[in-house]
Amino acid sequence: MPQSLTFTDNRNGKRYELPIMNGAIAAKSLQRMKVDQTDPGVVSYDPGYQNTATTISYITYVDGQQGILRYRGYPIEDLVGQSNYLEVAYLLILGELPSQTKNETWRNRILAQVELDPSIHRLIESFPPSAHPMGMLISALGALGTLHPESKQVLDPHVRQEQMYRILGQLPAIAAHCYGHTHGHKVPTADTSKGYIGNFLRMMHNFGLHEEEPNPAVQDAMNALFILHADHEQNCSTAVMRGIGSSHADPYSSMAGATAALYGPLHGGANEAVLAMLSAIQDTAAIPGFLDKVIKKEALLMGFGHRVYRNTDPRATLIKELAYEVFKVTGDNPLIDIAIELERAALNMEYFQERRLYPNVDFYSGIIYQALGIPAEYYTLLFALARSAGWLAHWSEQLDDPAQKIARPRQIYQGAVRRDFVPLAQR
Ligand code: SDX
């Protein structure tokens, strides 16, 4: 059976044979379909890239029908149970699980980067204490690009690697200084002997737990949450990272853009929005009324739905299990009962069933963060810290891909045709 599609252009009877490779046709081959030499050719129209692959990637595999997520072929369930975030970052960026020596070197090079340039401290302190930390992170990333102009040599793999160490090492410190600034407390000096996540928790005062030493169960939970948020193939913010990176911008500027995309409530900002939604519902008795509003399109069920998953997001299942591990330390978060009843009720309603809407990664993560005493405005910042490994992996993969060009989509122009200028006096 030939792996191809045959098109007949009914405007002139011409026939075209298009090969199917990896389940796709090359959209550029549609350009051959013209009615005359002035015709620019047929263009594919796909708002939001709902059915358009912009790259061939080897990093993350998502099967939306089966609810499968694998990083470089390793099931997320295995990585959460047996690996740690820095090792997963190595896997995503370099393609293999590291040997012990490579793991040690990777870890040490990143942990050696935790000190921030004083100008970054001053930048963070220049914000009002009410500033949202995602806005502060976006600015800090842009500022890092100005401190390291050598990072513009994006085609030099050694220069690229140095920036990755710095970004992975400094983002937790930036988060800790944002938290210290917005909550008016001194940031503990880094103690990398506690490990990557342990040092981060310690610099964040273990959030609301206010313990000096990172609690092992909380550390394990945060490690798992970072792994679960580390990558998700061509999501909105990763597509932006690739888009900005395609112009050969430095990784800091590219990541500032990706962070801005993640900030949106339809993407990474959903975890913060889920907490606001659950808190507004307040009681399971209010769930039917809320779901009525959703069905009438007066509200979105935040934390539900996904462009790819037509089944439960495997991360949501794992995060729901993690919640109970955290509650053993923090005590139950009453919002979990509302979330569980909301999920149960929604999954039994035709509106959600016919649209294949299930809980996604953001539905339960906020409940854990709240139980840990993390302020809601920091939830998406945690998502950004974890996703930095995935953003860097895709940014780097794209730069090494000879098929890639600067991102410049086409459009279908439906605006005004040519018009003559009318001077102001005559308007
Ligand atoms: C993330 O892409 C990724 O991988 C992202 C992510 C990652 O790891 O990077 O997984 C992280 O961003 C998860 C998603 C977090 N966002 C939310 O939880 C916000 C709520 N969800 C929706 O906004 C929505 O489901 C999206 C944005 C996630 C997906 O949007 P799509 O694919 O464009 O789907 P759609 O908006 O076209 O919805 C199809 C239908 C519509 O109804 P009809 O027009 O057919 O009547 O489903 C409805 C939508 O109104 N719908 C919802 C809904 N999500 C979709 N209705 C109510 N509540 C929702 N949450």
Would you mind describing this structure in some detail?
Helix content is 49%, strand content 5%. The chain is mainly α and 427 residues long. The strands form two sheets. A three-stranded antiparallel sheet has the order 3-4-5. A two-stranded antiparallel ribbon has the order 1-2. β3 (60-63) and β4 form a beta hairpin. α8 runs antiparallel to α13 (314-330). The chain is globular and about 75 Å long. The relative contact order is 0.13. The mean pLDDT is 96. The site of s-citryldethia Coenzyme A has 20 residues, from loops.
Short description:
With 427 residues, the chain is mostly helical. It has helices at 76-82, 85-94, 100-111, 118-125, 133-147, 157-182, 195-203, 216-228, 236-245, 251-263, 270-281, 287-295, 314-330, 335-347, 350-354, 362-371, 379-399; strands at residues 4-9, 14-19, 60-63, 68-71, 74-75. The strands form two sheets. It has a three-stranded antiparallel β-sheet. The protein has a two-stranded antiparallel sheet with strand order 1-2.
